[in-house]
Amino acid sequence: MSAEYHIVVCGSVVPDPLQTLAPMQGPTGPGLKNELMLPAVLDPFAAHSLYEAADLAKKNPGSKIWLVSLGNKMKLQQLMMTIAQKVSFELVALDGSASGFTDSFEVAEVLAGAIENIAGLDRSKLLLFGGCSSASRDAGVTLQMIGERLGLVNQFLAVDKLTSEDGGNLRILERIEGGEYQVSTCSGPPAVMGWATGNLPEPPNNPQVGMANMRTIMPALQKATASQVGAAGMTFEKVELPSQQRKTRIVKDTPVEEIAREIVAWIKG
Predict the structure, then answer these.
(1) Into how many domains does the chain fold?
(2) Alpha-carbon gap, residue 81 to 76, rounded angstroms
(3) Whole-prediction pTM value?
(4) How confident is the prediction for the chain on average, in pLDDT?
(5) Is residue 197, in this structure, part of any structural domain at all?
């Protein structure tokens, strides 16, 4: 017997990781050189969670998906032209900074407020999806703080697989050390799922899905509320790319303990 889920996916625009990103100090704080000119993509971790949400909704008729996205409104519009063709969803757009220099606490506050205002959202069916990390805000805590603000205490934060079982139970595989999985069972929603890479490929483009989505996406973008997020009270002395070092030495039959000691000594040095 299938269950109905109300799946809210948190994901935003990030600069295409194939581009060269050069940090710089601007008049309003740190940022990226020519940031508005850089090609944008949906955050890769959030994309995994969106595709997994679509698969779960497909297997459970009656389920709905919302994509809650904070970012520059023009960048969001460009992004939706491609994402809208892959998955059916309703967009909740917030016009604000998606910079990696924003504070996770402020971002979580804004996103949680937007989720609380979604019309027709049933908290008893809510599954909050998102990336376990981010290509821009790699603090790894934003999704947890959103869940806490929404009162979602069942949180799984390195998910690779989610299975809906008979009786409404959810079986979750989370990554742990050593390439192994922790297997958990949850009695059902509400819950938070922070996705790692999942196990689904990127869906193919479907123009019909895109046209159906754009009927609601464009009005959502026009109604996008301005959201002030930043890093109030924080100052950055400088921003720069980390220096690269590469020293390669090929050895054979060296014990693991000795290799570990050499690596630690090199880091300390």
Answers:
(1) 1
(2) 9
(3) 0.79
(4) 82
(5) yes
Place of tokens 């303990």: 257
The 10s digit of each residue's pLDDT in 112-142 is 888 988 888 888 899 999 887 776 666 678 8
What does the CA dihedral 48, 50, 78, 231 come to, rounded to 10 degrees?
A: -80
**Parallel/antiparallel/unpaired status of strands 155-164 and 126-131:** unpaired
Span 66-108, pLDDT tens digits = 999 887 888 888 888 888 888 888 888 888 776 767 777 888 8
Q: Give the C-alpha separation, 118 to 120, whole Å.
A: 6
Q: Is residue 255 part of a domain?
A: no
The token pair that represents 262 in the structure block:
């050499």
CA angle at residue 96 from 233 to 212, to 5 degrees? 155
Helix or strand (DSSP H, E) at 193:
strand 191-195
Residue carrying the six token digits 């100052």: 235
* Residues near 230 by beta carbon (within 8 Å), at least 6 away in sequence: 29, 97, 101, 102, 103, 106
Half-sphere exposure of 231 (CA within 13 A, CB side): 15
**Which domain range does residue 117 map to?**
6-226
pLDDT surpassing 70 at residue 184? yes
Structure tokens at 160: 């690779």
At 267, list the tokens: 């880091």
Q: For position 8, what pLDDT does the model report?
A: 92
**Has residue 138 been placed in a domain?**
yes
Distances (CA, A) of 30 to 92, 141, 185, 230, 265: 27, 21, 43, 11, 33
Written as six digits, the tokens of 195 are 């996705």
Tokens of 75: 């960048």
CA dihedral over 44, 126, 63, 167, signed as positive or negative: positive
